[in-house]
Amino acid sequence: MTSPKLDPELLLARWARTLQSSALQDMLSAATKPGIVSFALGLPAPELFPSAGLAEAAAHVVSTDLQALQYNPPFNALKTHVVKLMALRGVKCTERQIFLTAGAQQGLNLLTRLLLDPGGGVLLEELAYPGFQQVIEPYLPEKWLVPTDPQTGMDVVAVERLLSRGFRPAFIYAIADGHNPMAVSMSLKKRELLVSLARSYSIPIIEDDPYGFLYYSDKPLPPLRSFDENWVFYLGSFSKILAPSLRAGWVVAPEALLPKLGTVKEASDINAAPLSHRIIAAYLDSCDIEQRLAMLRREYDKRRRRMVDVLREQFPASARWEEPSTGIFVWVELDNNVNTSELLREALEKERVAFIPGNAFSVNGEQGKNCMRLNFSNVSEPLIEDGIGRLGRILDRASSLV
Amino acid sequence: MTSPKLDPELLLARWARTLQSSALQDMLSAATKPGIVSFALGLPAPELFPSAGLAEAAAHVVSTDLQALQYNPPFNALKTHVVKLMALRGVKCTERQIFLTAGAQQGLNLLTRLLLDPGGGVLLEELAYPGFQQVIEPYLPEKWLVPTDPQTGMDVVAVERLLSRGFRPAFIYAIADGHNPMAVSMSLKKRELLVSLARSYSIPIIEDDPYGFLYYSDKPLPPLRSFDENWVFYLGSFSKILAPSLRAGWVVAPEALLPKLGTVKEASDINAAPLSHRIIAAYLDSCDIEQRLAMLRREYDKRRRRMVDVLREQFPASARWEEPSTGIFVWVELDNNVNTSELLREALEKERVAFIPGNAFSVNGEQGKNCMRLNFSNVSEPLIEDGIGRLGRILDRASSLV
User: Do B71 and A244 touch (CB under 8 A)?
Assistant: First the structure.
């Protein structure tokens, strides 16, 4: 019997029928080819991974405890470590408010599943983390957008305007520190106002904080969660402070929400403690995490400074950027007539250098056309100098053609 | 400023408002207390985990390759191992049809997200794996139910009747081998008919196969996927053949579906290769998996035989069960007047022995009230003898009270 040819488009749920891998994705896979200097992805530096410590922890955990390989409830010893980490971020919480995940992205996905109805509303910025846009897409949601100021972050007055007009999103999505893609950290005043709006209107904030430990000033601002334990649901990650392939993160949420999170995680992946959670706990038992975080800040700060210095030397005088106080990106705004999507093609072909065009982050496709996001955490200082120089040449050529 | 008390019920998406951890869950956490003989959960035997091999593989992978800790695309070397495993199951497929997951449960969740619209229809059995019921719950789906025969499996004629009347589910959910909870394996005739229905009506089947490698007959039947590569989406798992906390599994699906699965997994957990995928590949590189599978079948078969023997000796003559040819469960049907949910309470309190009452698997709450699911894979032979004896005493007492 011959089987009729399957047409996936006909089978799929409505939202998924138009789902496509983006042209950007294809271009980025080109960016991983050898010889390309890539400022594109938000990767940590592999040479800073604690591989010896993790290898030892992994061998120890697997060989000394058979139960470590079994289905097990969420691993409490790791929650205790997370409570200590959160204290370093200026957040008071208890183990009963910690929910362990397979990374911050999973936390985002589970919270959205709990909070968002199909066709419901979400409040986010015009330029937003694409992984968050992917999370909400299956709900075919209404998206209420606010702009982002490159120096002070999310336009919280615009948030207030929407709420006062009666808009009631399921939640507000925010990255207060080291914004992705705009690299900005929200001003203290805006933090306070945003949290007070959440409280007044009873709208929760999902605070995505993958970069919060990577700050470069003496006095980092406290995350939104430090201002309110009820209305801010915080997402943390081990990807940037230990290693991404461990796939481990956490949510800090009101205790009442944790059983519900447990149930949606059960449906996602059984909610059994993965081996990596035990490996991380064993590693943290025997390591000075404060020392490690200080080392990461020191090393990434060197790259950050180098990038900003070289931008100043090599980029046209009309280009604008802010020195990021947290995170792993620099956001560069070029002349209005520069189209960075076209520029990327040329940069890859002629100078073998990659970045992400700002427009790739635009929720409605309108913003960021003359902008680029540059990552510095995964590029060595000499390569930063080399790659930014190459980009500068492309820009010179582009502007001489105008 | 005092924060208004958050009432999670008010915030949550509609489907999640009534979400509760079940009374069963609470009882089961009682079942994990020391001194309890538990036939309740579907756990593999920890003493059969390949801990030495996995410890070595883990230490090797982490300490020799920095990139193993980085964000990486899905790990192709593991796909090659999966193709070989599928050949052992009688399924021909290529790496391009293999999608790697964080376990079969994640595969189930991702496929459902791709296929099911909110309020859409699903065809499943009256007694079904609760983890699947959890997956579809957020869609508030229509559930079309068919019965299951304890000797031949899913009532495929009832499936045909529904489809011929015009019911068009997004997909059919099936466990052809070692059914959970009913322990039955579908007859060859039913397999052929079910797959031909899927083809004729263009309705995909999700074949959940966590136990398929654990068969106890010389000639196991081929899985549904072996009859059709277009209309059967197969879910495999390393949890029962290696170890659950690795959180690793796979989907075998038409190549056209894989980019879409990649996109929904990206939204779930970034779809970066987790460390465990590399550890498993390294372990499989250096191990004879056929030998390991034969060892598991041999050991679990001893427990299975022992359970069936002791049931014959210790359970009332009116109790009925089939010897399972695959999997890790025995399904026992008792007199109609026995309520196994009440029995469980007594069994835990008086005899310190646990099982899952059949009704816990019932989709509409009607079936299985006089049934119990007994797991044998996670109980040693002496404890099987002891625990089934205790259960027999409870049943004797219960029937003497009737």
Answer: yes
pLDDT tens digits for range A105-125? 999 999 999 999 999 999 999
Angle at B113 between CA B112 and CA B117, to 5 degrees: 90
Is A16 within 8 Å of B47 when comparing Cβ atoms?
Answer: no
Domains and CATH numbers, chain A: 11-49+291-401 (3.90.1150.10), 52-285 (3.40.640.10)
Question: Which has the closest alpha carbon to A252: A270, A227, A276, A286?
Answer: A227
Q: Which amino acid is at A330?
A: V
Question: What is the per-residue pLDDT across B277-320, written as a single tens digit (0 to 9) for each?
Answer: 999 999 999 999 999 999 999 999 999 999 999 999 999 999 99
Beta-strand pair A249-252/A232-237:
antiparallel
Contact at CB, B70 and A44, closer than 8 angstroms: yes
Cα distances from A192 to residues A93, A182, A189, A197, B121, in angstroms, run 19, 20, 5, 9, 46
Positive or negative CA dihedral for A83, A86, A91, A97? negative
Instruction: Please provide the DSSP assignment of A177-197 as one string.
Output: SS-TTT-----HHHHHHHHHH
Tell me the residue type at A8: P
Buried b (16+ CB within 10 A) or exposed e, A389-399: bbbbebbeebe
- The answer to whether the bond into A357 is cis (omega within 30° of 0) is no
One-letter identity of residue B23: A
Residue A378 DSSP SS3? coil
Q: Residue A369: CB partners within 8 Å, gap ≥ 6?
A: A339, A340, A341, A357, A358, A359, A362
Pairs of CB atoms within 8 A across A/B: 259
> B152 with B190: CB under 8 angstroms?
yes
Identify the weakest region by mean pLDDT among A17-31, A177-191, B341-355.
A17-31
Secondary element (H or E) of residue A311: helix A289-314
- One-letter amino acid for residue B293 of the chain: L
Cα–Cα nearest to A10, from B260, B104, B145, B380? B260
pLDDT digits (tens, 9 = 90+) for A40-84: 999 999 999 999 999 999 999 999 988 899 999 999 999 999 999
Q: Which backbone phi and psi does B149 adopt, to 5 degrees?
A: -85, 130
**pLDDT value at A1 more than 50:** no
Which of A226, A140, A216, A211 is closest to A180 using CA atoms? A211
Instruction: At A68, list the tokens.
Output: 């470590």
Three-state DSSP at B303 gives: helix
Minimum Cα–Cα distance from A48: chain B residue: B66
- How far apart CA A227 and CA A251 sit, in angstroms, is 16
B309: left (phi over 0), alpha (psi -120 to 50) or beta: alpha
* Burial zone of A202 (CB within 10 Å; 0-12 exposed, 13-18 middle, 19+ buried): middle
Tell me the two tokens of residue A336.
């209005």
Residue in A with minimal Cα distance to B46: A66
* Contact present, B208 and B132 (Cβ < 8 Å): yes
| Interface predicted TM-score (ipTM) of this complex, two decimals | 0.96
**Nearest C-alpha of chain B: how many angstroms from A219?**
24
Query: Which residues on neighbouring strands pair with residue B360, listed in sequence order?
Result: none
CA dihedral angle for residue A63, residue A65, residue A66, residue A70, rounded to 10 degrees: -120
Q: In chain A, positions 6-35, which contact chain B (CB-CB < 8 Å)?
A: 6, 8, 10-14, 16, 19, 21
CA distance A284 to chain B (A): 16
Say if residue B181 is preceded by a cis peptide, omega within 30 of 0: yes
Contact A62 B62 (CB under 8 A): no
Which ranges constitute the DSSP H helices of B227-288? Answer: 258-269, 275-285
**Chain center to CA of A106:** 12
